Amino acid sequence: MLQPKLDSLDIKILAALRTYGPRNFAEVARRTKISPTTLQYRLKSLSSHFSLIFLTNIYHVNLGLKKIVIIVEAQPGREELLLNCLKVNGFWIYLAPIYGIVQGYLGVYTIPEDYIAKFEQFLNELKDIGVARSVRYVWTTSLQKVNLVGTWFDFDSEAWAFQWENWVNEIPGKSTELPYTLKDPDQFPILADEIDMFILKELEKNAVISFSELAKRLGITPPAVRHRYRKLLKLNLIENFDIRLYPFQSMPTENFYFVFDFEHQEAYAKFATSLLDKPFVVSLGKVLGQSSMIAFLYIPLQEFRRFINALSKLRAIEWLQNYFYVHMDINKDQKQTFPYKYFKQGSWIYDHNEQIKTIRTLSKQSLEL
Fold first, then answer.
1. Alpha carbons 131 and 133: distance in angstroms, whole number
2. 154, β-bridge pairs
3. What angle do CA 283, 150, 319 make, to 5 degrees?
4. Alpha carbon 180 to chain centroid distance?
5. What is the pLDDT of the chain when averaged over all its residues?
6. Is the CATH code 1.10.10.10 the one for domain 1-50?
7. What is the pLDDT of residues 145-197, one digit of tens each?
């Protein structure tokens, strides 16, 4: 059975969705010069064959939340216990098994700024109770989603053309101007109330949920929701939309998490800018206070060696200092929205002592079995 492939019109539709957003289908149809009926048919096909969904990326910085990505190596035989312990801290938003040199879990958490030291104590406790062998982490900016455009798609042959050599050569000439999501924030203010948090949580799950449906769930009017939505945009609480789709389904692929280190800010900025339109990039983030970045990547296996060769060339010319990566098993990953339920009366509730007590109990119980 032939695997589905994206064609030229699909790419044009996805590029328009990236620019105009999934809440503006009329403009997407106009820009791609197709009828609304054709657009709906194409979107239904993409949803069926490529699992296309529309999500909203929240700028957690303006919710007073600092993002951290952790790599936790499990003690052999305690992998399931490690996962259960990681989930005790309710501020996780993503967890995925990792394998290779490190066997364990990758986690993404959004932690209230006042509790970052407590969270680091939580991570150290995982080692102290014998659940984790090692923990490595980076505090990062929000993760900039990279939605698909036509870069590296050959519209004549309607196939992907991976131009690694061209990518290496283009980096030195790239702009150093980055989106605000890839810059160190000056502060972590809380710019939302509980109603805003609810709306953001629902949009994070479904970017095209109607204002009428949100109004019904909140017990307010649709115009009131619309007013709130405009405020969220104005305050940069909504970064952008996640047009989630995996384009290389006709090829065996792997998902990776990379950390890249650079000698200076300019090298970081140009490297990051070069990735903002590439089809193998899922999302990017800057390591806070450093000339380093993280990247979640989705690469066909047949192209991975060529990608590593490209990185080697960048190291040879001293553009890239170093890198580290792990394989991710996204077939077993878990996601949840940002921890809105812990926001009460204008502040975040973070019970560090209860978390520590719970993971110690879980560890003790597992040893008694």
1. 7
2. 159
3. 55
4. 15
5. 95
6. yes
7. 999 998 999 999 999 999 999 999 999 999 999 999 999 999 999 999 999 99
- What Å distances lie between residue 30 and 9, 27, 150, 275, CA to CA? 13, 5, 18, 28
Please state at what angle helix 116-128 crosses helix 79-88, rounded to 10 degrees. 160
**pTM greater than 0.70 (yes/no):** yes
Closest CA to 167 of 36, 277, 77, 331: 277
Residue among 324, 259, 325 at smallest CA distance from 290: 259
Angle at 268 between CA 283 and CA 112, to 5 degrees: 55
DSSP label of 44: H
How many Å apart are CA 329 and CA 262, to the nearest integer?
A: 27
Q: Collect all residues with Cβ–Cβ distance below 8 Å to 171 and sequence separation of at least 6.
A: 270, 271, 274, 314, 319
Partners of residue 343 on adjacent β-strands: 348
Q: Which residues contact 110 (CB under 8 A, 6 or more apart)?
A: 60, 63, 65, 66, 67, 68, 91, 93, 338, 339
Which residue type does 271 have? Answer: F
- Dig out the tokens for 164 from the structure: 């690694």
Residue type at position 37: T
In angstroms, rounded to a whole number, what is the distance separating the alpha carbons of residues 225 and 211? 6
**What's the confidence (pLDDT) of residue 2?**
56
- The domain spans of the chain are 1-50, 55-192+235-369
55-192+235-369 adopts what CATH topology? Alpha-Beta Plaits (3.30.70)
Residue identified by tokens 């339920």 is 341
How far CA 62 is from CA of 118, 127, 187, 211, 276, in Å, comes to 21, 32, 8, 22, 22
Confidence of residue 369 (pLDDT cuts 50, 70, 90): low
| 3 state DSSP class of 235 | coil
Q: Is 310's pLDDT higher than 80? A: yes
SS3 content of the chain, % helix, strand, coil (to 5): 45, 25, 30
Neighbouring-strand partners of residue 261: 292, 322
